[in-house]
Amino acid sequence: MNLEIDYNSGLVKWLFNGKYYEYEVYGIQTAEVTNQNIIFMQIYDSGKFEARYVSLNGNDLLWYYSTGLLYLFNPINKTRKELTIDDLKDVRINENDIFVMTSTKLMIMSFDGMIRTKISPPFGYSFYRFLDESQLSVVCIGSTNNVDAYGRNEWLFKFSNGMWEKISISF
């Protein structure tokens, strides 16, 4: 699927199931379709970073801001919930869940804001960001005890069978 971005007008345009959609947002920087077939947009306006997830039929799913403010849009009952998350690092979604990351915990939430699960980072590490993969994958920053011979300290982990598996150094 191709997205067309008009930076002057703030329009993101696409064709889905034979229908043409337009989404207007001021300060659009990038827009892409994720591997879960959800549109991810990055916005920068008045010195503030914002990201939005939008369904292919143009409905808002989630907005989040660098300040820790989240807006969750429930696609079933068409409600919006506002949350503030201290130490917000990153957010990802799929069709069923919202993944909210702070440096000390990863929360899996429903679209109505209910926390389903909390996951701690691997021992000796703090969460840094998600990777764009279908499996739950993260980059973590290690303590000084986890630095490799070259001074690198950001590591890729995948969550499998209830455990974090250290995969490799993150580039």
Description:
By secondary structure, this protein is mainly β. It has a domain of 86 residues. Helices cover 0% and strands 57% of the residues. The chain has a six-stranded antiparallel beta sheet with strand order 4-5-6-7-8-9, with no helix packed on it. It has a four-stranded antiparallel beta sheet with strand order 10-11-12-13, with no helix packed on it. A hairpin with a 3-residue loop joins β7 and β8. The protein is globular, with a radius of gyration of 17 Å. The model has no long low-confidence stretch (mean pLDDT 91).
What is the string of SSEs from the N terminus onward? EEEEEEEEEEEEEEEEE
Averaged pLDDT, please? 91
* Shape designation: globular
Largest sheet: 6 strands, antiparallel
Number of strands: 17
- Rg, alpha carbons: 17 Å
- Unreliable stretches: none
**What is the rounded distance between the termini?**
28 Å
Number of helices: 0
User: Which class best fits the helix and strand makeup?
Assistant: mainly beta
Instruction: Indicate the multimeric state.
Output: single chain
| Strand residues, percent | over 45%
Helix content range of the residues, please? under 10%
Kindly report the spatial arrangement of strands forming the biggest sheet: 4-5-6-7-8-9
